[in-house]
Write a structure and sequence with these properties.
By secondary structure, this protein is an alpha/beta fold. It has one domain: Spore Coat Polysaccharide Biosynthesis Protein SpsA, Chain A. It is built from nine helices and nine strands. The chain has helices at about 20-35, 50-60, 65, 70-90, 105-115, 165-175, 180-190, 210, 225-240, and strands at about 10-15, 40, 90-95, 100, 125, 145-150, 160, 195-200, 205. The strands form two sheets. A seven-stranded mixed sheet has the order 2-1-3-7-5-8-6. It has a two-stranded antiparallel sheet with strand order 4-9. Strand 1 (about 10-15), helix 1 (about 20-35) and strand 2 form a beta-alpha-beta unit. It is globular. The protein starts with 11 loop residues before the first strand and ends in an 11-residue tail after the last helix.
Length: about 250
Amino acid sequence: MLREPELSKEGVYVIHVLKGYELHEQRIRRTFKTFDLSHAFITEGDPSLFTNDVLNAYFIPGIKEKLQTGILSCTLNHFFAYEALIKDQLSYAIVFENDPFFMLHFTENLHKFLEERKQLPPGHIISLENSTLRFPSFFQKKKGKCLYKARSGRMAGAYIIDHLGAQKILEYTKKMKCNNVIDWWHNHLIDEGIVDMYWAHPPIVEQGSHNGRMQGAISTKSKSVFRLLAWEIQKFYKSNIGRLRDQKDIY
């Protein structure tokens, strides 16, 4: 029997590594405590724990030559987060990578998304972030509606995934084997009809590795004022002027 998670106690998984990002971990603990969110760190996919049996269970042969170690570890940890959701018998979970910045009205909007989620067909992912700076246009936005079915994801830094979605992804991945980073693998799964993607609007999470405030565990871009300013300019343009045109990825 599936359980609705009480997010202050369970159902929130953070993709992380065992060493080298202690400041990220400390920030997660402070931030999530402020917002009364649980935070189970998913680290079983750390590079120090790689074995051929584990990698072969989820990935194509030779995946270590195709993906950088950090990217491979991150992708594997997403799969382990789905395994945890299944094991914990939860109806859904929220998955974060380890550099989230919560946006204005985070808690209020999250509750709206979770309520509207109950109306969706099982087998879905709900993107919570703005990493690609893609949004429903002003004309596509519907009054009282927050979740919009889309043809692709918006990265994998913050999303809700339901039990059936996690189950179907794991079954497909173990059979067909993943050949790419988790963001692109999600898009492949959408194309194959394995899982449905929805964009939450307004987005409620920014990744620090994208907005210039932090360096992510798999990002080659360092924290900088220039990146922060460039991000804010792009965000203003795309969330205002850019939304005068319909977003083609929205059905």
